[in-house]
Amino acid sequence: MESALTEERRKDVWEALSEAFVDNEIDYVFLTRGVEGMELGELRNIFFNEVAPHCGPNLMTPIPPIWAGFDRERLAQGIRATQARAQRSAWGRLRHRIAVAFYRWHFRGLWEEIEGELNKKPAEPAC
Predict the structure, then answer these.
(1) How many C-beta atoms surround the C-beta of residue 22 within 10 A?
(2) In a domain, 60, yes or no
(3) Mean pLDDT throughout 26-31?
(4) Which of 7, 8, 16, 121 has the most CB atoms in a 10 Å sphere around its CB?
């Protein structure tokens, strides 16, 4: 189930989270600025269920082809194509669930870094 994010906001979040999957030093402060205001559980879901299945393979190759950042529009098209493949059949859904389980294990350290940086942000005062 998708959240009520607008398409542009979702692309912003995808673009920010995709920075964790480039073959370069990750600027976690910059990454977390792109996801400000998002609920942590929703971000975790987007990270593992949407971004990791498309971007994760980049870090799993001997020489990752993407090291300077993912192109925003190609990223969005790729994630949507990955989602469509996962929904075409029962086999596609099963493959996607297995892949997500693997990415949750394999990229748990990346997520912990992101979550740690998000937890450093001061809570906004209640009005």
Answers:
(1) 17
(2) yes
(3) 87
(4) 16
Name the residue with tokens 């086999």: 91
Structure tokens at 110: 């990346």
Establish if 41 belongs to a structural domain.
yes
Residue 64 lies in a domain: yes
What is the SS3 assignment for 107?
coil
How many whole angstroms separate alpha carbon 112 and alpha carbon 41? Answer: 13
User: Where does residue 80 fall: left (phi above 0), alpha (psi -120 to 50 degrees), or beta otherwise?
Assistant: alpha
Report the number of distinct structural domains present in the chain: 1
CA dist., res. 51 & res. 13, Å (int): 9
CA distance linking residue 111 with residue 103, whole number of Å: 10
Name the pTM for this structure: 0.87
For 63, phi then psi, to 5°, come to -125, 95
* Residues in the chain, total: 127
